[in-house]
Amino acid sequence: MARIKTDNNLTRKEVIVTKAATLFREKGFKAASMRDLAEAVGVEAASLYNHIKSKTELLHELCFSVANRFLHKIDEVELEKNSSVEKIEKLLRFHINEMIHHYEEVYVSDREWKHLSDPYLSNFQNQRRIYRKRFAAIIEIGIKNKEIKSIDAATAVLIMLHAISGIESWHRSIKKISAEELEENMISILVGGLVNR
Length: 197
Known about the structure:
This protein folds into two domains: about 10-50, Arc Repressor Mutant, subunit A (Orthogonal Bundle), CATH 1.10.10; about 60-190, Tetracycline Repressor, domain 2, CATH 1.10.357. Helix content is about 70%, strand content about 0%. It has helices at about 10-25, 35-40, 45-50, 55-80, 85-100, 105-110, 120-145, 155-165, 165-170, 180-190.
């Protein structure tokens, strides 16, 4: 019987989760089957159940590992003694790098979370809502301190996060600028558009 090949110090379960992220992005959570996943990993479908309970468990793991990384980052940034503009730039750079280097996981977390079931669905929606409110609060402090233009903070957060999710098209493009250029261009546009000059 074939064994799950591991490399880069990944456990067998981590290999399965990584392959699941690719599969869920390509086919969508609903259309992807455990048989597809077994094929991608290189084992019999029955062997997968030695490492995971279900396809739903994989989605849960993907969504919450991404959400927890973002919440951990905003915890860190909020405690720093930087200006609001610097905090926003730090968060945006983190978002951009996650989309560049952990694209499949972030994509699945951003697009397929609606297939979670309660209590996980409510919990995940709540985490997203809290994250956006905390991000907006940083912008509001910047507006109050006259660092940032007088804008609607919640709308600004939505626009910035949607712009970053557009990095999906950068991944698909044949001829593209480097990841570094992409990051600098996005920061210049997104942060530059907020600053009160």
